[in-house]
Amino acid sequence: MPPIVSPIPDRVVAYVGGTNFLLRAYVLWKDGKMIVIQAPPLDLVAERVHEMKERATFTESEYRKLELEYWRGLEIIHTLVDTIDFDRTNWGYLLPRKKTDSGFQITQRKKQFRKITIPLWAPRVDENDIVYTTWWECEHRAGIWNGREVEVFMGWDGDGMQMEDLERSMRGYQYVQGMDLTYEVLGHVMRHDIVIGLMTEPHIGRIMQDRDRALLYDAVSRMERRRIVHMGPTPPNLLIHNGKVRLTNLACVRYFGPEKDEEFKIMAEARHWRTLGDFFSTMDPFPFDIPNYMRNRQPNLHILPEVPSVDRPIRLEIFTQRQARPYLLDMFKLRKEYEKKMERRRDLGLSKRSQIPESLEDELTDFTSEVLEDRPYVVPTARPRSKKRRNEQYNIENSVSRRLLLAHGDS
Fold it and tell me: Which domain of life does the protein's organism represent (predicted)?
């Protein structure tokens, strides 16, 4: 059997996921080590959440704007990749430089992870013993452990939403233990003495169909006898594997004690019977088998190459500085904007979880080199038609539209 290797080449940095809400974070990976780079939440998020008291809705154009700003933040981080020490800490902060006229820097700090207190029931597995082969999202991965394929849910954000979901998933598994409704838990992923992930057998199966109605209704009835409700009983949270129902996304499993009897009845009717009834009423009674499409998603993985670029991997996205001009030529303006945004967010009173620690501002150190010196290697998209154009093709001011990308169809 050939050795199992990661899709990320050695000594190469890759973006493997992140979040763009109250916590704006970028997760980077290099040689089996992970670091999270946190940036202040964007103005639109901060203001909307403050207005709606922790609940925010956005229009389609606002979502596009948020996405564009998020990727621009990664472009800035891309110019600073060579300053990150992956062996030093697990967390860093993207901050404007205080002692220079322009630019940004990454200040690294160690992040304390939330300690999960739920009793463990499976073997403890060191995170370094798993070779990851796919990142659907940073928190949802596939890999190889002890020669077998596994699926892993990771809590990567210290004390944030993903760690909370990890704890809820572990509690959900305990609620349904002994009912033969879940994929086997193979281990608790550990970093030193802290639980940071849950490792299970692969979530292989097919989407439920009309002929599975009796199986699903029986599973739901057994859950309700334990006063358990799955808050999202729709594909792909309900799968069929080897003729049995398999639940996924167990962070959605809730237990209602006797004191919450009325709420339990309402939720069971709405979440189980009404949801499943609507699902089956619109289903084609004789469809083809549909596999678990969550495992067929495009991996969320982008290589952040140094200059010159690494040899081209197979079918792996190469992240490039698509909007280099405004962010490399006008760093001073951006730094001033960042300072104003950070002050405004503090005035809005957002939770500390989403903010850059104020103590870091007094500890910023100057860098001897400027970000402007780290210019992208520009590859022209077409052959210049004149000598003048040939001279301009490596001018950074004219590099905005040029991209170093991989075509999915290339072999």
Answer: Eukaryota
